[in-house]
Amino acid sequence: MAETKKKKIKVLVTKVGLDGHDRGVKVVASLLKEAGMEVLYLGMYQTPGGIVKAAIDEDVDVIGVSYLSGEHLVFTPKIVAEMKKNHLDDVLLVAGGTFPVEDIPPLEEMGIDRVFRAGSLTNTIVQYIQQNVKR
Amino acid sequence: MDNGPDIDEMVKRLFSGDRRATARLITWVEDGMEETHEVMRRIYPRTGKAFIIGITGAGGAGKSTLTNHLIRKFRDQDKIVGVVLVDPSSPFSGGAVLGERIRLHSHSQDNGVYIRSMASRGYLGGLSRATYDVIRIIEAMGAEIVIVETLGAGQDEIDVIHIAHTCLLVVTPGMGDDIQAMKAGIMEIANIIVLNKADLDGTNACLRHLNATLSATSFEEGEWVPKVIPTISVGDKPKDIQGMDELTAAIKEHQTHLQKSDAMDQVRFERVEHELGLILKDELQKLIFKGLKGTGKKKRYIENIIKGKDDPYSVVDKVLKTYIKTKE
Amino acid sequence: MGNVIREEKKEVQIEGTWDDYIKSYYEKPSSSKSWSGFDLKEIYTPEDRPHEKYQKEIADSGTYPFTRGIHANMFRGRLWTRREVVGIGSPADTHERLKYLSEHGGSGLNTIADVTYEMGLDADHPWSVDEVGLTGVNITSIKDMETLTKDIPLDKVSWSLITASTAAAVTMAQYVAVAENRGYDLPVLKGSIQNDPIHFRYCGFRPACPLDLSIKLGADVMEFCTKELPKWYYTTVNMYDLREQGITAPQEVAFGFGIAMCYVDELIRRGLDIDEFAPRFTFYVSCHIDLFEEVAKIRAARRMWAKLIKEKYGAKNPRSMQFRFAVHTAGCSLVPQQPLNNIVRTSYEALAAVLSGVQSLHCCSYDEPMCLPTEKAHLQALRTQQILAYETGVTNVADPLGGSYYVESLTDRIEEETLKVMKQVDEVGGMEEAIRTEWLDRKFESEALKRQKELDNGEKLVVGVNTFTTEQEKTTPLGVQRVSGHSATQQIEEVKKLRRTRDTDKLKEAISRLRDAAGEKKNVILPMVEASKAFGTTGELLGTVREAFGYPYDPMETVESPFN
């Protein structure tokens, strides 16, 4: 199995819906790239269906969604549903942005593997992904 | 215990147009998995029919937006389109195209488009070998058109473009010097030269220059003479986008040219020759290194070369002789 | 702890490890740079300003070049306007919160548009339905504006309408339409509208803010207000949002001025005299966490704007040269870790604003990096302003930091740096070109990356983030604001009902007049007012103008015009 182990972690990061705060997601994309990952930034105004389709086509290990306008509870179930429909059970789903702590347990219950709030250091994100990719 | 991936199952799913199987098989290629060889052997007969368009040019020339418009045109004809982005700065691999993405990802929900980005990371058999395989997988999935987009930077990427039936070279008016430098290679690579951003200063001078270069080149009777198509691929307003119909027509014309002359046979011959060479080289190397594995010979050869006791040429002669003899 | 980054540790540190105490005792600041990266000296002396020309460069407050403030008596004349931004759920929900804050001593009404409204989408647009009211208020028709402004005396209050995108033209039209329907004469209306579509492309609204349309509609509002609403501040050029991208203080001023000049140039091109419109020009400025740098920035901006308007545009009226500004404390300086600390951060930032002679102030609530403000958090932010205004005594003297060797020297330094950045913009062909070629986008991206790296490597310290970290708290201290999904659903239903019941013929006529005006490049605000009165929606008004300018009717390219 050793030689079939993936050499590089492939991450898709994206915005969803109308929220246009994209400074953070672009910074995270650059920093994950610097940390040696392959990063695809999908851009703004994505739909849950479009995000999951891109994740399938690109065979990514991680989907990272950036939420900064209180839309996390609206879109997360939709993304998770699309992932389930397409059996993406070996893809790590992480979210970043502005949320009250009270929303972290429900987000995790909905199916997000890890939530990174504003103020997270790059190291924390990189290490988490490296240690938790599912394949 | 993992018995290894189920090749039968994966190939079956690929033939049925399953996107996840397609994506995973491409990952096998990228990761240089051994099973790829068997997969490619099985799918080969189902491939070779798609029309392959190569798009190359320097970064910032607008290749991705052109690709996007072409996808749209082919989707209007109900063709299943595959796209391979061999370009670290393409929109799907982050960074380069930020902001107005609505038109760019207008295909994001369209199941008739398969888009895959390939980082130019270290492929065992080289980037072009991997790209050949990826294209064939996408073909086997059902794509009728495959667009391969590369950054026309190095030999590796230029090799990739050899895969295409029709090759588009994208230049912009500001690239006068670059074009000068590329002049020698230009005619060999490009079937169509796209002068993008044709609203910028210097467009007319650049057009004159390109046409002069072309008319100074002699073409044989019946040979394809590269076409120069001015385009504008980016704009806020739909009417700002120009030259897309002309570009699609030129691609069609080149395709017809290939079909009616025996050019298509020649292209096909060259492609297979190129591909065969790549695979042979790659597999031969793998086989020999596998044979040497555990003998300690490889290390010794290398050390001897470094110490000046031997040289790579003599080593290869020796290795090949041994190999061929044992086989005989 | 200095600049050592504490990794999140699970084990509890034993109280009383004396090494830590001793280290703390001898600890020095980890950096001697300002937030924007200026190397600072240990002490500033008269030597640092050897050529001071007080009258020419500084002058008393109320005197050109207004470095020390635009009014001679500053806050003795009138306190700054204590505004808190409100926008939540439906127009009715927002109206409730406005009432609450005004009952507690808020002195200005600030309402902010949500993402759907800013994008120019109606509440029932397919892209809107999930997001209506999440970040502000959506006004789809004049009915929503009526609900929002119900019972509020529009001639007495100063209303600040925070719509920035091209939708600001619609907001202005809707406000004017409601005011006229309620019998007010336009000249009595006072307040402001953000109306800075150019900058808003950098806040994720590019599809709604193409450059030519941004300048056109932005200038239409400015021109209309100059002629019809003499008490109205028709733009608040938003340097704040630019700063939030991660840029430095001098870049904030330089890019903000660059955008402001796009509008000024357009108004002059339309034949207006600089002195006719410049007195109603205002800015929205950030106050970040480095107190002295922020004060110096605003003093420099005041001096530079005065010189620019006088020297470049030939203004004669001193009022034209005054840099009027509102401050929004820096949202990006706040963090969700140990959230109550945000109250302290905001207080310092608000202090900087007041020491700079601010005209109008919004304090971020402590829960800004978590959710929309709760009622309690909103009130607390207002209290921060009131403590400054009524307890601290900082209102007594104009420009209290003026004359400080350090602050004067830093003011000069920021002016110098800002001029350098403005020169860079000139070198790429001016602001419009910098925007068109995405030069500015690249600037924002590289600066934002630098800021995160400074945090990652401990060059900049933020308590709770990369120093003095503690375990994540379990709850948000004053609770969490939720937006009721019910309000949104109700608003969407109302809009659908409106579409069924309005007089279509009358609307079609009004839309066709709007289309003609846009096609003939005439000012579209008045036709928009008429179309609003005929119950045309935000999407319909804006879409009609977009089409006349060659853009797709719907910025999301989902909905087609019902009028073709």
Question: How much strand of chain B?
Answer: 5-15%
How many strand segments of chain C? 9
Q: What fraction of the residues of chain C are assigned to beta strands by DSSP? A: 5-15%
Q: What pair of chains forms the biggest interface? A: A-C, 32 and 48 residues
CATH superfamily of the largest domain in chain C: Methylmalonyl-CoA mutase
How would you spell out the order of helices and strands of chain C?
Answer: HHEHEHHEHEHHEEHHHEHEHEHHHHHHHH
Q: Quick one: overall form of chain B?
A: globular
In what order do the strands lie side by side in the largest sheet of chain C? 5-4-3-2-1-9-8-7-6
Secondary structure layout:
The complex is a heterotrimer of chains A (135), B (328) and C (564).
Chain A: E1 10-15, H1 23-34, E2 38-41, H2 48-58, E3 62-67, H3 72-85, E4 92-97, H4 104-110, E5 114-117, H5 122-132
Parallel strand pairs in A: 1-2, 1-3, 3-4, 4-5
Chain B: H1 7-15, H2 19-31, H3 35-43, E1 51-57, H4 63-76, E2 81-86, E3 113-117, H5 127-141, E4 145-151, H6 155-161, E5 166-171, H7 176-189, E6 192-195, H8 203-215, E7 227-230, H9 244-260, H10 263-292, H11 297-307, H12 312-327
Helix pairs in contact in B: 1-2, 2-5, 5-6, 9-10
Chain C: H1 18-25, H2 54-58, E1 81-86, H3 91-103, E2 108-112, H4 115-118, H5 142-149, E3 159-162, H6 167-181, E4 191-193, H7 197-200, H8 211-228, E5 232-233, E6 235-238, H9 239-243, H10 249-269, H11 274-277, E7 281-287, H12 291-312, E8 324-329, H13 341-355, E9 360-362, H14 375-390, H15 405-427, H16 431-436, H17 439-456, H18 485-501, H19 504-519, H20 525-533, H21 538-548
Parallel strand pairs in C: 1-2, 1-9, 2-3, 3-4, 4-5, 6-7, 7-8, 8-9
Helix pairs in contact in C: 3-5, 6-20, 8-10, 10-12, 10-15, 12-13, 12-15, 13-14, 19-20, 19-21
